[in-house]
Amino acid sequence: MQQTLSKNQLADIIQWDIKNWSKCLAFWNKHADFNPKQKVLALGEREGGMSLYFALKGHEVICSDYNPMPDTTIVMHAENGVGDKITYQKIDVKEIDLADQSVNVVVFKSVIGALGNKPDQEKALKEIFRVLKPDGYFLFAENLEGSKLHQYLRKKFVGWGERWQYITNSDMVNWNAPYKSIITKPIGVLGLFGRSEKQRKFLAGFDRVLSPITPKKWRYILFGVLKK
After folding, report:
1. What CATH number does the domain containing 51 carry?
2. Residues 78, 81, 85, 86, CA torsion sign
3. How far, CA to CA in Å, does 181 sit from each of 136, 171, 222?
4. Which of 45, 82, 103, 104 qualifies as a FRET site for 127, CA 20 to 30 Å off?
5. How far from chain centre, in Å, is Cα 126?
C-alpha cells in the first residue's frame, strides 16, 4: 500500500536531514514485499516517526522506546488519525519483551548507535532476529561512521558524538549473517554538514550527484532490508 505523505507528515516521520534520510522509505518499499496489516515493531521511537509511517500504511504498530512515550508523540499520532493502529510499550532493545517469532517487521531509524558499544549492539540485533517471524523483515536507517571529517565534526559539534557507536559499512552485514537476504545502501556525503534543516536540504541536493561517485566510506547513512 503506497500513500502520499504531506510535508508535515514527512517531517514528523523523518524529523531531521529530511531530504537524505527520507530516501529510506523508497528503499524499503522497493526491496521489502510485505502484505497489508502486518504486525510492526518500531524501536527507539521517542518521537514516533516510524510508527506513524507504518500506521499510515495500514499496519498494526507497537511503538516502543526505552523511556516512557512522551504525550506529544501520542498526540501527533492521534492528529494523523492513526491512534487506533498504534500501541505503546517500554522496550529495551537488548531484551525485547516479546515472544519469539511474534512480529512481521522490525524497524528503526538512528537507534543502534545510541547503545554505545558493539557487544550491546550485537545483543539488540540478536533480539530483533528472535522476535521476527520467518520471512519477516528487519528495516533500518542508521548513522554510518563516515569520513574522517564526519567523525571530527561530530565529536566537536554534536553533544553525544563521542558516546555514539557509529557503524561501518560491514557491521550490519556481519552481525546479521543468519538472514537469508541482506540488501544495504550507503548514502549521503554533504547533508550532515548543514547547521540548519534548510542548509541540510540544500547540501543534500548535491549528494544526489556525489553519493554514487564518492567512496562508500565517506557516506554517513546506511539503509538496510534484511529478510529472515
Report:
1. 3.40.50.150
2. negative
3. 11, 15, 16
4. 82
5. 17
